[in-house]
Write a structure and sequence with these properties.
The structure holds two protein chains of two kinds.
Chain A (H helix, E strand, L loop, with lengths): L4 E3 L4 H13 L4 E4 L15 E4 L6 E5 L4 E5 L4 H9 L3 E2 L10 H7 L6 H4 L6 E8 L4 E5 L11 H5 L7 E9 L1 E2 L3 E8 L2 H13 L6 E5 L2 E8 L1 H15 L4 E4 L3 H15 L5 E6 L5 H14 L3 E7 L4 E7 L3 H14 L3 E5 L4 H4 L10 H11 L15
Parallel strand pairs in A: 1-3, 2-3
Antiparallel strand pairs in A: 4-5, 5-9, 6-10, 7-8, 7-9, 11-13, 11-14, 12-13, 12-16, 15-17, 15-18, 16-17
Helix pairs in contact in A: 9-10
Chain B lengths: L2 H9 L4 E2 L2 H4 L16 E3 L4 H14 L3 E4 L16 E4 L6 E5 L4 E4 L5 H8 L4 E2 L12 H7 L6 H4 L6 E7 L5 E5 L10 H5 L8 E8 L1 E2 L3 E9 L2 H13 L6 E6 H10 L10 E9 L1 H17 L2 E6 L3 H21 L2 E4 L9 H15 L2 E6 L8 E5 L6 H17 L18 H4 L2 H14 L14 H5 L9 H4 L7
Parallel strand pairs in B: 2-4, 3-4
Antiparallel strand pairs in B: 1-2, 5-6, 6-10, 7-11, 8-9, 8-10, 12-14, 12-15, 13-14, 13-17, 16-18, 17-18
The chains are: A alpha+beta, B alpha+beta.
Bound molecules: flavin-adenine dinucleotide (FAD).
Chain lengths: 383, 480
């Protein structure tokens, strides 16, 4: 391969100049953050790379307002570390160690999506740079704001195809005084049932996750409150349940297992999909059945009440992985391939059945990037 | 065939209004100073009829404006003179309540409160609670991304909607969002919510339902200064407590409440905070004590705890009646909806007071202090010729919020009302980029034109004064 130009701007003005220059050169750009989600969806065609990782500064942090503004290339983990010093956090726990901008562009999230949603629910302002160098801002620095359209939403899940996120403003949450994890070995159907009782029983878990044979529920609050809810949750869960107070290695290891599964390893295929809560048990059954039929080692982790699921496929051939993914897509069209086993691209189109609003997706892409210069082919065959 | 004849044929003569006397009902929303009579109003009975009406409009280039209950406070549902109004009032079926999946599917004309009523038998409710919730529709809530007193903890409409069936400007029907929040591609649903009726018409909404909290505790804390109350709010937030609601009333608002209803507020206090915590009982009890301590540290002169559910209801009744009540101590008033960063509450309230003194008019404050969303009420007398002064002050307050790092609007929307102030908050390229989104949804600009974005025509005109919404005067709904 010939050498590829890399733009690595460190400031907004440099980023704008990079886009103007590349527009003049007629280049197609791949926008790269930390690279942890570079493989999501289709493989973009590009002549140059726009690397955002030099734009990693803290722009404004006002702990009293509980908001923070950062350059989009800031590593998300570094941001959380800064905030922890003030007992605050962005209420997101994604498995991948990416940039803040990447988190928005992938719409990624972790188990606390159960209570806090995804980045769409905590981004309150963005500055973006479009393919032609236009710099645009929407939202602001306050948590409540309905002035103008919310461009952050349009960029949520955009996978580098609409423009470059330059700056992101986030709302913060207080870190809880106490936290604890309930762990219950059970199958997916029992997990859905117990999870439902925790939710309906006003125990207010911040995460309910069923990971490969264990239900995990996390409770945040005051020391006394968490202890009380622990008693009630244990009573609901019955024999075999464990109560793991704190964030120490025992609880930490359980949640790390979720993140490991979601990240996958070289040679794995990882697929994220969405489904209504009550379909979680049938999804688990489908994964089992298809994995057996194609002799693939499959593992599933689910946030059933947020309707978010991740399937990891390991071993066997790319063709076997493709067969499993196709079976999943047939039942659950809202599926994104996040990691591709070697050779899988040859066996499987990047996306399955398009969502009903695909015509609007196309129109939005045309309006923001008429020459299809950014992340070209990422959403192929949809557009 | 003319477009009006086509509409009558497509929807049935009984579902269209052209009689000028009946059209007048639709000439304004809650921002009653702006009035325009539409050429026609249509009242479709199904989503198919909505789509049919929009197709006729698209075919003839006729602008159309969706309308729910007409309680909007920014002129969002203000008609266009040569266009039609599409009322969603007849689409008011609760299609399904699904307690297992914690969601409900409703038509757009269903009122906000009716969703919670339908969910109540399952111990569930719909969280966003605008004070107009008895009458405002979920379609209007989606269009405005409406909030309410309890949005501090629970978030706004956008955080509680999973999917929307939408009629696009060309009359095609599509679904934004899906079964879960995991829909690949751009978050079109999120962008649509809060777009003030300019990107299409919602014909069905899937909302999330929440389990009712196990415990609720409410208090009223009095303060000798407005700054003290503002600092207490900042203190509560900084302590890492997320109350369900933190509302503030100043003395003028409290006087108004006392003049009109059985008031539980201290008549001569300078300011009062209503703080409500909800959630698991032990957590609530612990933090409730902490909040009282923080209020005392910031100079609270008296703290009243709600004894029981009835007492709590009285506290909220007074709080929610405040707006209607202000109408009794002043013949006219403007309401603003600006937002400031929460650390600057005391500062902005001080500056508003000084500006009011300079302008020689009174300003009452009753608002969502917890998320920095002000609702200053600029009181004036039309008869005494104070209109222009009051209007100028009102606009200055909104723009002051922007200057302090906040926003022109927290929940009422820009609409026709604040479109001309948008350049204070956004640059030309910001607005042009937002217009790209609009063009993607509605290339011909037929869907609720003249809202949100400043236009020379709009910004050259002078609107009339604010008058209370008829429902507000009747005490059915209150403004927060
Ligand atoms: C006394 C009072 C108190 C209030 N309190 C609050 C409050 O606490 N919090 C708050 O956020 N707001 C509040 N509001 C404002 C108002 O009630 C909300 O904006 C509400 O969401 C409007 O709903 P509606 O059905 O009346 O919509 P309308 O006023 O009829 O319309 C509002 C906008 O929505 C569009 N629209 C309506 N239906 C649809 C649809 N189906 N599809 C697409 N677009 C549509 C219209 O075109 C218009 O732009 C209050 C208003 C009053 C009068």
């Amino acid at each position: 391969m010939s050498t590829v130009t890399t733009y690595r701007p460190a400031a907004l003005a440099e980023l704008r100049d990079a886009l103007v220059d590349s527009a003049r050169a007629g280049e197609r750009l791949a926008i790269a953050g930390g690279g942890s989600a570079a493989a999501w969806g289709g493989a973009p065609r590009y002549d140059a790379v726009l690397d955002t990782t030099a734009m990693s500064g803290l722009i404004a942090y006002n702990p009293t307002d509980m908001t923070v503004a950062v350059q989009a290339g800031m590593p998300f983990a570094a941001l959380q570390e800064t905030l922890a010093g003030n007992g605050q956090w962005v209420a997101l726990d994604p498995a991948r160690a990416g940039t803040v901008g990447g988190l928005v562009a992938t719409a990624d999230a972790g188990p606390v999506r159960h209570a806090f949603g995804t980045s769409r629910d905590c981004v309150i302002g963005v500055t973006v740079v479009l393919a032609d160098g236009t710099v645009a801002r929407s939202g602001g620095h306050v948590i409540k704001n309905v002035a103008g359209y919310d461009l952050a939403k349009v960029f949520h899940g955009s996978l580098g195809t609409l423009g470059v996120l330059a700056e992101v403003v986030l709302r913060l949450h207080p870190r809880p005084a106490a936290t604890a994890t309930l762990a219950v070995p059970c199958d997916a159907a029992a997990a859905f049932d117990l999870g439902g009782r925790l939710v309906h029983g006003s125990l207010e878990p911040v995460a309910v996750e069923w990971c490969d044979g264990t239900l995990l529920a996390r409770f945040d609050g005051t020391a006394g409150g968490v202890e009380d809810r622990g008693r009630r949750a244990m009573a609901l869960a019955g024999a075999g349940a464990e109560w793991l107070p704190g964030d120490d290695h025992r609880a930490g290891a359980r949640w790390s297992a979720v993140a490991d599964l979601v990240r996958g390893a070289d040679g794995d295929t990882v697929v994220r999909l969405g489904a209504a809560p009550d379909r979680a048990p049938s999804l688990a059954a489908l994964v089992d059945r298809e994995a057996r039929a194609h002799a693939v080692d499959a593992a599933l982790t689910s946030s059933p009440f947020a309707g978010a699921h991740t399937v990891r496929l390991r071993g066997a051939t790319a063709a076997a992985h493709a067969a499993v993914v196709i079976a999943l897509r047939t039942e659950f069209p809202a599926t994104t391939v996040c990691r591709w086993a070697d050779g899988l691209h040859d066996e499987l189109p990047a996306w399955g059945e398009p969502p009903p609003a695909v015509a609007v997706l196309r129109a939005v892409k045309r309006a923001f990037d008429p020459d299809d210069r950014l992340g070209s082919g990422r959403f192929a065959p949809w557009f | 065939m003319s477009w009006s004849a086509e509409l009558a044929e497509a929807l049935g003569r009984e579902n269209v209004i052209t009689d000028p006397a009946r059209l007048r009902t639709y000439e304004c929303d809650g921002l009653t100073g702006y009035r325009v009579q539409p050429a026609m109003v249509v009242l479709p009975r199904s989503a198919e009829q909505v789509a049919a009406a929009v197709r006729v409009c698209a075919g003839h280039g006729v602008p159309f404006v969706a309308r729910g209950a007409g309680t909007g406070l920014s002129g969002g549902a203000l008609p266009v003179a040569d266009g039609i109004v599409i009322s969603l009032q007849r689409l008011r079926r609760v299609v399904e309540v699904d307690p297992v999946n914690l969601r409900a599917v409703v038509e757009p004309g269903v009122t906000n409160l009716d969703i919670s009523k339908a969910a109540a038998p399952y111990g569930l409710y719909y969280a966003p609670d605008p004070s107009s919730q008895q009458v405002c529709t979920i379609g209007g809530n989606v269009a405005e991304n409406s909030g309410g007193a309890h949005c501090l903890k629970y978030g706004f409409t956008v955080n509680h909607v999973l999917a929307a069936e939408v009629v696009l400007a060309d009359g095609t029907v599509t679904t934004l969002g899906g079964d879960s929040a995991q829909v690949p591609g751009y978050d079109l649903l999120g962008a649509f919510i809060g777009s003030e009726g300019t990107l299409g018409i919602v014909t069905k909404v899937t909302v999330r339902l929440l389990a009712k909290p196990a415990a609720v505790r409410t208090m009223v804390a009095d303060f000798a200064t407005v700054a003290g109350a503002g600092d207490a709010v900042t203190g509560i937030i900084a302590a890492g407590i997320v109350p369900a609601a933190v509302e503030m009333l100043d003395n003028l608002a409290i006087q108004a409440v006392a003049a009109s209803t059985e008031s539980v507020y201290t008549p001569d206090t300078v300011a009062a905070l209503v703080v409500e915590l909800d959630g698991p009982p032990d957590d609530v009890a612990e933090q409730f004590d902490e909040v009282q301590e923080i209020c005392r540290q910031h100079g609270s002169t008296k703290i009243m705890l709600a004894r029981d559910a009835d007492h709590r209801a009285l506290i909220w009744k007074g709080r929610k009646a405040a707006f209607a009540a202000v109408g009794r101590i002043s013949p006219n008033y403007f309401v603003q909806d600006g937002v400031v960063p929460r650390g600057r509450l005391a500062e902005v309230l001080g500056r508003i007071a000084a500006m009011a003194d300079d302008a020689g008019v009174r300003v009452a404050n009753v608002f969502h202090a917890g998320d920095g969303n002000l609702h200053p009420l600029v009181l004036y007398s039309e008869a005494e010729g104070q209109h222009d002064r009051a209007e100028r002050l009102s606009t200055q307050i909104a723009e002051l919020c922007v200057e302090l790092g906040g926003s022109l609007s927290g929940e009422h929307g820009i609409g026709a009302d604040k479109a001309c102030s948008m350049p204070r908050m956004f640059g030309e390229d910001d607005l042009a980029t937002m217009l790209r989104l609009r063009t993607a949804f509605d290339p011909d600009g037929l869907c609720n034109p003249g809202k949100v974005f400043p236009t020379p025509r709009l910004c050259g005109e002078r609107p009339g004064p604010y008058r209370p919404h008829p429902l507000e005067e009747a005490g059915v709904i209150e403004r927060l």
